[in-house]
Amino acid sequence: MVTEVSAINAESLQKAKEILTGGGLVGMPTETVYGLAADARSAQAVQEVFRVKGRPQDNPLIVHVHENFDLSTLVEISQDYVYALLRAFTPGPITLVLKSKNVVAPQVSCGLDSLAVRIPSHAGAQAFLSYVNMPIAAPSANLSKHTSPVTAAHVLQDFSGKIPLILDGGRCSGGIESTVINVMGEVPVILRSGLITKEDVIRVVGKCEYAAENAPIRSPGMKYRHYHPACETAMFPLNELSKATALAASARKEGKRVLYLASEEAQTALFALGEKSVLSLGKTEEEIARNVYYLLHEAEEKCDLLIAIAMEERGALVGVMNRLKKACAP
User: Looking at the structure, do residues 194 and 268 belong to the same domain, yes or no?
Assistant: First the structure.
């Protein structure tokens, strides 16, 4: 199979629809990361997503729809605050977990009674979802446990010869996966942190909690080690730079190429210690989130050991640190 990478236009959209209706898979852009799209109503197509990704069978998928799609055909909305969240944050990087009406294949939710649904804001994603006009199951378009893709080239790296088409929507602007919130109870519960923060949700509906560690697995990102680049990794807090530089020195003696991954603040501190091989994530929360996966992909091509410097977990950095901890897990 030859994998075509195409700009989003009338011809590529028609080709994508033909692939999906035939049970095939398509790489699609969103504002967060690229997704591996399948017809969510087809058990065979959904199972192919798990097979191609090498994804564990108990890790649920998110269903993507266009902004004019009638969500009530897929899920039951029992809490009034859900409508406030929809008005405030959609289209956008938020996923809501609701009671399923069992319209999609049961494999999407791994047999659970819930369904995670999302309305992406990326213009190309909206064009694609509107054109195919079907619920699309789309986990991140990477091999299981590898770093999530934020460009079409990243998708091609993992799936060349494995899927027929990748729709190229440019580099993702958000950079990390959507915030996932269980909205079936009286209080919204964050299952996976992202660009929309707990504080954002509280401002809109007045209440929000984080999921307990033993909460049921109702969304991706809750259980498995993810996001790992194809190089060795380590992580140190900013107040333990001496340990980081000692590890770097030891690795260099073994002939390894070493890079640091750090915020602008940590980069300044590393420069003061004479460490110049730094991939800068940026200064603001938005910059850091946008750059984290992009630079993890860059690092695996340029180094043997990547040393990440941890950041204070606030706002969107809660989501960034969630990803980095998993990327750097032993």
Answer: no
pLDDT at 43: 97
Q: Report yes or no: 168 and 7 within 8 Å, Cβ to Cβ.
A: yes
Do 31 and 164 lie in one domain? The reply is yes
Q: What are phi and psi of 163, to 5 degrees?
A: -135, 155
Separation CA 248–CA 250 (nearest Å): 5
The pLDDT assigned to 217 comes to 61
**Which CATH number belongs to the domain containing residue 33 in this structure?**
3.90.870.10
For residue 329, the model assigns a pLDDT of 81
CA geometry: angle at 85 spanning 83 and 91, to 5°? Answer: 100
Do 323 and 261 sit in the same domain of this protein? yes
- Residue 202 counted as domain residue: yes
Helices 317-327/285-302 angle, 10° precision: 20
Q: Give the tens place of pLDDT for each residue, 62-117.
A: 999 999 999 999 999 999 999 999 999 999 999 999 999 999 999 999 989 999 99
pTM exceeds 0.90 for this model: yes
Low-confidence ranges of the chain (pLDDT < 70): 214-226
- In a shared domain, residues 116 and 13: yes
Buried (b) or exposed (e) across 141-152, using 16+ Cβ within 10 A?
bbbbbbbbbbbb
Give the type of residue at 135.
P
The separation between the first and the last C-alpha atoms of the chain, rounded to the nearest angstrom, is: 35
Provide the total of helices (H) and of strands (E) in the chain, helices listed first.
10, 16
Q: Does residue 279 contact residue 299 with C-beta atoms inside 8 Å?
A: yes
Are residues 205 and 257 both part of a single domain?
no
